[in-house]
């Protein structure tokens, strides 16, 4: 999907919303179930924290460094201080994306394939989708409401709907599960979540 608009204001709101939610997470919460596959909340936060580091490195021309993306590099910090570890990397990625050159940069993102390179504006859009969804994941894990600005959801929805569905989503390592049915009328957020494999009613209440 080609993205040529500046999504950074929406991105900053999404990431800050997720950080505000994670600020309430304690070590005792890390074993909670999450809507993100079989991951616990702790495993989800390790992923989210590592991805912030990786995308920040990619924005700065260091995305080819495997260590920048390595979940093991953040695991101990997240397990000791989930709120603090997450806040630090959330701030890191927001600073990196705010740089004047970020939109025009080329991001190296190894998880898209060996040596894969993505235009900066598109990479920021992908990260935006992830953190609108993962913010909801955290909120549901904590049994808290997910409150995010409507304009952020509207900006994110077309990017999310452009993600193809199919058998490949059943594979290990797929970032999203298969799309699920959603009751109509559905909100934009429910449409976004269901297309990316979440049941808006998780965990069934």
Tags for this entry?
205 residues; mainly alpha; two-stranded antiparallel ribbon; globular
Low-confidence stretches: none
What is the CA-CA span between the terminal residues? 35 Å
How large is the count of helical segments? Answer: 7
Proportion in β-strands: under 5%
Query: What value does the average pLDDT take?
Result: 92
InterPro entries: CHP03086 (IPR017520), DinB/YfiT-like (IPR034660), Maleyloyr_isom (IPR017517), MDMPI_metal-binding (IPR024344)
Domain Mycothiol-dependent maleylpyruvate isomerase metal-binding: 12-139
GO molecular function: metal ion binding
Pfam family, one: MDMPI_N
Report on this model:
- By secondary structure, the chain is mainly α.
- The protein has a single domain (8-165), classed as dinb family like domain (Four Helix Bundle (Hemerythrin (Met), subunit A)).
- Helix content is 50%, strand content 3%.
- A two-stranded antiparallel sheet has the order 1-2.
- A hairpin with an 8-residue loop joins β1 and β2 (117-119).
- α1 runs antiparallel to α4 (82-98) and α1 runs parallel beside α5.
- The chain is globular, with a radius of gyration of 16 Å.
- The mean pLDDT is 92.
Topology:
Elements: H1 8-22, H2 41-59, H3 72-80, H4 82-98, E1 106-108, E2 117-119, H5 120-141, H6 150-161, H7 188-195
Helix pairs in contact: 1-4, 1-5, 1-6, 2-3, 2-4, 2-5, 3-4, 5-6, 6-7
Pfam families: MDMPI_N
InterPro entries: CHP03086, DinB/YfiT-like, Maleyloyr_isom, MDMPI_metal-binding
Domain Mycothiol-dependent maleylpyruvate isomerase metal-binding: 12-139
